[in-house]
Design goal:
Elements lengths: L9 H6 L5 H10 L1 H9 L10 E4 L7 E4 L2 E2 L1 H5 L12 E6 L5 E5 H17 L7 E5 L4 H12 L3 E4 L6 H11 L3 E5 L2 E3 L2 E3 L1 H11 L5 E5 L13 E3 H6 L12 E2 L3 E7 L7 E6 H15 L7 E4 L6 H13 L3 E5 L10 H9 L3 E4 L1 H8 L4 H4 L8 E5 L5 H11 L6 E4 L32 E4 L12 E5 L9 E2 L3 H9 L6 E9 L5 E6 L3 E4 L2 E4 H9 L4 E11 L3 E10 L7 H14 L8 E4 L13 H9 L12
Parallel strand pairs: 4-17, 6-7, 6-8, 7-14, 8-11, 11-12, 16-17, 16-18, 18-19, 19-20, 29-30
Antiparallel strand pairs: 1-2, 3-13, 4-5, 9-10, 14-15, 15-23, 21-22, 22-24, 24-25, 26-27, 28-29
Helix pairs in contact: 2-3, 5-6, 7-8, 10-11, 13-15
The protein binds 5'-O-[(S)-ethoxy(hydroxy)phosphoryl]adenosine.
Amino acid sequence: MTQKLYNPSQKVIEKAHIKDWNKLNESAQADPEQFWTGMADELHWHKKWDKYIDDTNAPFYKFFVGAQTNITYNCLDVHLTTANRNKIAYIWESEQGETKSVSYFALHREVSKFSNVLKSFGVKKGDRVTIYMGRVMEQVIAMLACARIGAVHSVVYGGFSTEALHERIENSQSKVLITCDGSYQRGKVVELKKIANEAADRSGYVDTIICVQRVKNEVEMVAGRDHWYHKLMEMPIASSKCEAEILDAEDPLFMLYTSGTTGKPKAILHTHGGYMVGTYTSLKYVFDIHDEDRYWCAADPGWITGHSYIVYGPLLNGATSMIYEGAPNFPYPDRWWSIVEKYGINILYTAPTAIRGLMRYGDAWPRRHDLSSLRLLGSVGEPINPEAWRWYYETIGNSECPIMDTWWQTETGMFMITPMPSVPLKPGSGTRPFPGILMDILDDDGNPVANGEEGNLVIKNPWPSMMRTIYGDDERYKTQYWSKYPGYYLTGDSAKRDEDGYYWVIGRVDDVIKVSGYRLGTAEIESALVSHPSVAEAAAIGMPHELKGNAIYTYVILVNGVNPTEELKLELTQHVGKEVGPIAKPQSVEFIDSLPKTRSGKIMRRVLKAKALGEDPGNISTLDD
Ligand code: WTA
């Protein structure tokens, strides 16, 4: 794995907050507490902590014990008394090209107003609120308004469909649902309100829907339950005076559903204090945020990348961020490059799947634009293949912009393996763990593997922005993450380390499939298939795919007497799209007579995958038949 190192230019190093990674790392490894409390000191606390960590009830760790804060105070209020007051917090551009910008002053006002609206519906500290929207400013406002009053937001990605939304509403017991009439994707309207209605109608909890008017399509508004956002914001209840609720550092900030090792999606719970310190620090040092920067994380706020690095991290750093509503190739494949040029974007953070997708249109599209404002690039969500890395580096970054390949998870809250601008790079490696984070790669017996060998990636010490639990399921939190190697957090990824200590993440070792960087579980796809009347049993696996990283392949046993037709395959594909969401649609549906199972009845997806790849299935001694 020895290969060419890409060294940062003098220009990048000169600007970087951290010029000597080794020095920072040494001191942070030696004393994580000193490192993290030093970073926490850069933020405002209504009351400082009595203790950095409480590990008496591990793995239920607590950080900044006894401290009081509210993340939105640091995202908004602190900027009102500095030069940031009139600085642009977000520049927003719609798919059709309309633009809007909002200053820190205006964002503070809009969030305060909407906080009061939520209060008027009886939302209070600890209540869960589901947010199901497109990429609009109001989504950020809604998240911050919840946090401001101590409510716990649960954002459901706008690409999910009825069943996925319904399940998440029920599990979180949200009484309030915030949505849009619709959103634009590739010029077409995604009918969010329609899906929100279907999910709410099935729900035993939702009594209020607040709907942002975005596309002005015709939507059904249920009297007494449904309200227009813009109408509410004009009413006297929407006063712009709303102090941030002073919270305990350990009070929950949000829950975010993600696919776990097995079973249905689980809600990962994050808190105000530790998450704030983690996202603030990691964004500042890795994407090297400076006052004059324009930063663009092109993810969706509906996923963790959006939560940490569109909403909270940038606002904590007083950054100016870009939010673009639509598809990267709409109306032409140079849409992103035109945005970089138009707004003078300095930092661009996206996913390998997007890079591969844009790369295939050729170099002429980016070359038509002046991309010289770019200083740093970023990648997240799945391993980046060297070919895409080089194209991104050479064609987009003009061989001058280091790529921050950030490995992390919904659970970790912040970057865990990542370069910083001054670190020499190897394409496809996220380099080393973040300062203060101790990681290792273990074999099945818990022994560290030799350099160059593959094993299970683990985190050896707790860190402030780690998940606190799975909402409503402490037991599962313990078994899923902390039982394989007691005392160590199990990531679910396999990885290798090379002789320079650089980590190379290979991929998931469990039932999670990363499709275009989106995290899906085999169980979600399988239960969607089984909910179709023609299906008796189903199995889903991920297969390598050039653009998406992985594509979903499914194997279906039909109910007796149902004909295995091509039409039915198509119908099942559509059915999964309707139940879970378009991103979950299988690439292939194959009808079979039986599934490989263990004697205890667990589907052996590994065997299916080996067969599909034409490989040896390995040890099949536990196979039933
Ligand atoms: C994968 C996304 C390789 C990994 C922030 C992890 C990556 C899962 C990288 C978490 C990367 C994320 N290189 N693999 N830079 N970043 N992954 O929760 O398998 O949606 O476990 O968080 O994405 O996905 P999640």
